[in-house]
Amino acid sequence: MKLVATNIFADIPEQLPEELLECIYKQENIIIERITSKGHITPASQWYDQIGDEWVILLQGRATLFFEKNQQLVSLIPGDYLLIPAHTRHRVEWTPPDLNTIWLAIHL
């Protein structure tokens, strides 16, 4: 079997009317996805509330997450990573509108 590398920064559309979620790998208890945001945020009335843990690293751009329980804002720059435990309600408060913010998320 021939192995072929894929670049995490490749094939991102220039126009992103919505946040782009792309599954890179999926198996029984793990999903790895690339998320691309460009000024996208989670609507104020909505929350992410996943059934499993999510480990996320910011690869490019900047972002601010808001966590409901402790009303905490967490700012991320490239290289920052975070484990978000299952059922920790959170949302994306800010990403820059003029720059692709690229995340790698691992759902466990």
Give a topology summary.
Elements: E1 20-27, E2 30-37, E3 54-60, E4 63-67, E5 72-76, E6 81-84, E7 90-94, E8 101-107
Antiparallel strand pairs: 1-2, 2-8, 3-6, 3-8, 4-5, 4-7
Provide a compact summary of the structure:
This protein has 108 residues and is mainly beta.
**What is the rounded Rg?**
14 Å
CATH class: Mainly Beta
Oligomer: single chain
Q: What percentage of residues falls in helices of 4 or more residues?
A: under 10%
**Could you tell me the strand content as a percent range?**
over 45%
The strand count comes to 8
Contiguous helical run count: 0
Written as H for each helix and E for each strand, in order along the chain, the element string is EEEEEEEE
CATH superfamily annotation: Jelly Rolls
Shape, please?
globular
Question: What structural class should be given to the helix and strand makeup?
Answer: mainly beta
Strand order of the largest sheet: 1-2-8-3-6
Question: Major sheet, described briefly?
Answer: 5 strands, antiparallel
Mean pLDDT: 96
In whole angstroms, the N-to-C terminal distance is 28 Å
Can you name the CATH architecture?
A: Sandwich
What CATH calls the topology is Jelly Rolls
Unreliable residue stretches: none
Number of domains: 1
